[in-house]
UniProtKB/TrEMBL annotation:
<keyword id="KW-0472">Membrane</keyword>
<dbReference type="InterPro" id="IPR001128">
    <property type="entry name" value="Cyt_P450"/>
</dbReference>
<dbReference type="Pfam" id="PF00067">
    <property type="entry name" value="p450"/>
</dbReference>
<dbReference type="InterPro" id="IPR002401">
    <property type="entry name" value="Cyt_P450_E_grp-I"/>
</dbReference>
<dbReference type="InterPro" id="IPR017972">
    <property type="entry name" value="Cyt_P450_CS"/>
</dbReference>
<keyword id="KW-1133">Transmembrane helix</keyword>
<dbReference type="GO" id="GO:0004497">
    <property type="term" value="F:monooxygenase activity"/>
</dbReference>
<dbReference type="GO" id="GO:0016020">
    <property type="term" value="C:membrane"/>
</dbReference>
<keyword id="KW-0560">Oxidoreductase</keyword>
<keyword id="KW-0732">Signal</keyword>
<keyword id="KW-0479">Metal-binding</keyword>
<feature type="binding site" description="axial binding residue">
    <location>
        <position position="393"/>
    </location>
    <ligand>
        <name>heme</name>
    </ligand>
</feature>
<keyword id="KW-0503">Monooxygenase</keyword>
<keyword id="KW-0349">Heme</keyword>
<dbReference type="GO" id="GO:0016125">
    <property type="term" value="P:sterol metabolic process"/>
</dbReference>
<dbReference type="GO" id="GO:0020037">
    <property type="term" value="F:heme binding"/>
</dbReference>
<keyword id="KW-0812">Transmembrane</keyword>
Amino acid sequence: MNPFLSLCLFIVPIFFLLLKRRSKPSKRLPLPPGSLGIPILSLFGKPTVFIHGQAANKFVFTSDSSTISNQQVASLRALLGERNITELSGEDHKRVRDALVSFLKPECLKQYIEKMDAEVRRHIDMHWEGHQKVTVLPLMKTLTFDIICSLLLGIECGARREILIKCFETLVKGLWSIPINFPFTVYNHGLQATNRIRNIVKDLMREKRVELEQKGASISHQDLITCLLSIGEKNNKEGMSEDEIVHNVVTIMIAGHDTSSILLTFIIRLLANDPTICASVVQEQEKIAKSKASGEWLTWEDLAKMKYTWKVALETLRIVPPVFGGFRKAMKDIEYGGYLIPKGWQIFWVKSMTHMDGDIFQDPSKYDPMRFENQASIPAYCFIPFGAGPRICPGYEFARIETLVTIHYLVTRFTWKLCCTDNGFSRDPTAIPAQGLPIQIVPKKILQK
């Protein structure tokens, strides 16, 4: 072929392609405003965009996995396990979520109230009774961990619990660490701790599988691990793999421990700061206490009467959500709010900024439990302490029962006042009150003499 003709055949298509491109205006959107910071010191070394508000929350909780994924930061993913529910999407997410809900749905939780009641009473007798001063946050963490061991793992008091709590504390410290795996790092210690916890859970699974084979369906809901093991044997349903059970048990331990303990701590702080709200809570709880025979357990019907106390809990979650927000990952270039979120960027949705938006909640800084008198009036995706949509936390009802039972026994047995003049709190990354909230406590039986 003539060299000139060959050159023309090569150049002409390129010329028309360039002409076509120049004839169309560029649709490239600007990046979100702000600085990316120093890579190593920024959020785990990746570009991250913060979003908040009703539209942002709806976008996060309703987008499919081809748009944004639920992939967590590297440290969380490694320590919790890649098959945990926060990492899964599509049919895998639905299957695992359905399995967890089979244990955590209200009709099943009714069976666990007595056990939770017993754990709360035992905790108060051991750590509150006979003390003049306590520090609330560490005690609430002890309580919620004991409840997790009893109801979710089926581990009673003893050496195994003690080993587990030490590993658990180390794991929690490593969750938000920089994922550098050297022997002296917090992340490395967290990896070692999570491996020990997984081995304990696997041992429990072997024991409970044998027990399940011997006793059958009658024990299928005695604890979370037994429940998850039994699902695959019922009606030939697809169950969860061993890794999925282990990873999700660890994830629920983390979720149930930090969120509930922080919520309880800040309710106790509120009741010390606001005598009017405290009096209303005490009145509601003492009315229930007086209707019970001595030593009688609380019931599902009793919890249903604690309407004002739960409004106080919801308002606490609005103003001080235990978890600041959550991560997602852009799986493709996304146009959002007139900006471009490039593929691979992290998206961090922020609860607090939505909860304190004056366009959603009137006078948002005011502590007002009655704003939850009619929860249906709050627009969708505006109150998100437990998430929203198909990814709403499956442990919502578990947390409600745990909170109401604990507050019932505390306010009917004690009064308290704050020992710390600093009423602020920090985030690390969960909310932590100054000095862990030290309080002076007085048993009510002394006041009645």
